[in-house]
Write a structure and sequence with these properties.
single chain; mainly alpha; elongated
Length: 166
């Protein structure tokens, strides 16, 4: 059982991903399920199976695959899996679990804006609107490089810290 992402496997996954039809995910699910039978336990394939079920709206099923995949994933694919896992938990109204995933993921990948933005979505869905807005204000302060916003960066950060403390 290989747990590696070989160049050949990466190419196969990318080709299948590029052919997916978000309106009809069953062929993609079938493809990745079959690929998993040829690469049992491979975390990269498990992640893709989970993502396919997730896109198809079968979140409960997706969670199983994400949970199996995560211990074996590294780097950017691990970051993507954590984001999708946390987002799926949010979609299932499991807000505390989602926030815990995003908290740990943001610690592991502090440079990831997408993790912070999806964490804000979970905060908002959980009714924690002030903290959601605070998170987004910090992303904006950190990443949007316009003279107009930079002029008010200190104010944006102060407002973010105030909102986060509410």
């Amino acid at each position: 059982m290989s747990t590696e992402l070989t160049p050949e496997l990466a190419t196969t996954i990318e080709e299948a991903f590029s052919r997916r039809d978000r309106e009809n995910m069953q062929p993609t699910i079938d493809f990745f399920e079959d690929l998993l039978t040829r690469h049992p336990g491979n975390p990269y394939v498990l992640y893709e199976v989970g993502g396919s079920y997730d896109t198809a709206g079968q979140e409960e099923k997706a969670l199983e695959y994400y949970e199996q995949a995560l211990p074996g994933l590294t780097g950017d694919i691990r970051r993507k899996c954590l984001l999708q896992y946390g987002s799926t938990l949010r979609n299932l109204d499991r807000f505390d679990e989602s926030l815990e995933v995003f908290k740990k993921a943001c610690e592991e990948f502090p440079e990831s804006d997408s993790l912070r933005v999806f964490k804000a979505l979970t905060l908002h869905a959980a009714g924690r609107h002030d903290k959601a807005l605070a998170t987004l204000l910090l992303v904006i302060s950190d990443r949007v490089e316009t003279p107009d916003l930079k002029r008010y960066e200190a104010s944006l950060r102060a407002n973010a810290h105030h909102l986060a403390s509410l």
